[in-house]
Amino acid sequence: MILPPNLRPQQHRCATKPAPLSPAMDSKTRSLMPPSSRRHRSLALAVLFALLTPIIHAQKTATTQFSGQAAYTLTKQLLDVAPKRFNGSPGHAKAEEFLKQHFAPEAAKGNFVADTFTATTPAGLQTMTNYIVKYPGKKDGIIVLVSHYETNYPLRDINFYGANDGAATSALLIEIGTILRAHPPEGYCIWLVFDDGEEAVKTWSNSDSLYGTRHLAAKWSQDGTLTKIKALLVADMIADKDLNIDYVENSTPWLLDLLKVAAKNTGHSASIFKYREAEEDDHLPFAARGVPVLDLIDAHYGPTTDAMPDGYHHTDKDTLDKISAHSLQISGDIFLEMIRLINQRP
C-alpha cells in the first residue's frame, strides 16, 4: 500500500534546525535522569506509537483498497447503457463510449489508446477496437490486466447480456484503474486492456475467436512491447455468486503458484482451485509468444442441466442477479495482491 501524501515525511525548504538542548537537559544530565523517569518516558512513547499505528495504517490502506461494491455498481451501469454489446451493435458503441468517458483523465494525458483493426470473420470483415489504459510506474516493465468487453455475436438475437461474461470483469478493471489514478504504481507500469472480439463470431476455433488479443499480441511482438511484459493476467467470469477461480493448467506455473499465495494473503484460499483444467481464453495468444500469463476464470457458472449443460454461460440467464459485490471483492483483492507479489519478484 502507498502512504498518502499527508502522512509521508516532509522535508520543507524552510524547515529550521532542531532547537539545541537546554543546559538543564544536555546529554550528560539526561544520562543522570532516574531510571524510573526514563522508563516512564519510554512507556509513554510506546503507548503513543501503539495508538497512532492503527490510525496511520487505516488511512494508508483506505484509499487504495479495492471496492467490490463499486465494481458491482459499475457493472450495473455498463449493463444499463449497453446490455447487448456484440460487434457492430449500438450497444457495442455505447460500451466503447462508457470506457472513453470513464478514462477521460487518462486520455487527457495520452495514456488511453484506441487500438482499432479490421478482423476477417465468418460474417465478413468486422471493425474491432481494443482499449489500452496505461499507468506509468517507477520500474522498467509492464504488468498487463485483460478483460474482454463485448458479448457473444451468435447470441445477438436473444437477451444475452454477459453480466459475468465481459461486463463484470470490465468493471473490475475500471475499479482498479480508479485506484491507480489516485495512487500511481510504485513498481512496474500497469496497463489495462479492454479487448474486443474475444468471442467467436460463428463457431469457436483457432481462427474464429480471440480476435482482439491475437491482434494485440502480434502488434506488440512487432513493436517490442512483449519483451517488456513481466506478467499478463486475464480476468474472465470471476464475479458469479458461487465464485471459485480455476487452476488453469495452460497458465504459467510460477503465476499459478503466486495466485495461491495471493489468495492465502488475502484470506481467499477457499475461493480458488476447486477445479483444474486448461482453458481457451485471452491468455493464449500471449503464451504462444513466451509471455508469462495467468488466466483467472471460473468456468463453472451456475447449475448444469440438460437444457443448460454449461450452466448460465452463454445463455440469457447471465444477468446481474447472478453476480455479487462479494465475489468482485474477492477477485479485486486477489488482483491487487498479485500486482504486489509480481513487483516483489527479483
**Rg from C-alpha positions?**
25 Å
Instruction: Give the % helix.
Output: 25-40%
CATH architecture name of the largest domain: 3-Layer(aba) Sandwich
As a percent range, the share of strand residues is 15-25%
Reading off the top of the CATH hierarchy, the class of the largest domain is best stated as Alpha Beta
Count helical runs.
Answer: 10
Give the overall average pLDDT: 87
For the sheet with most strands, the description reads: 6 strands, mixed
Number of strands: 8
CATH superfamily of the largest domain: Zn peptidases
- Overall geometric form: globular
Keywords: Acyltransferase, Transferase
Pfam families: Peptidase_M28
Domain Peptidase M28: 130-338
GO molecular function: glutaminyl-peptide cyclotransferase activity; zinc ion binding
Question: What this model shows, in words?
Answer:
It is a single chain. The chain has 346 residues and is an alpha/beta fold. It folds into two domains: 30 residues; 278 residues, Aminopeptidase, CATH 3.40.630. The chain has ten helices and eight strands. Strands 1-2-4-3-5-8 form a six-stranded mixed sheet, sandwiched between helices. Strands 6-7 form a two-stranded parallel ribbon. A hairpin with a 2-residue loop joins strand 1 and strand 2. Helix 3 crosses helix 10 and helix 8 packs across helix 10. The longest helix has 28 residues. It is globular, with a radius of gyration of 25 Å. The protein starts with 26 loop residues before the first helix and ends with a helix. InterPro entries: Peptidase_M28 (IPR007484), QC/QCL (IPR040234). This is Zn-dependent M28 family amino/carboxypeptidase. It holds the Pfam family Peptidase_M28. One of its GO terms (molecular function) is zinc ion binding. Keywords: Acyltransferase, Transferase.
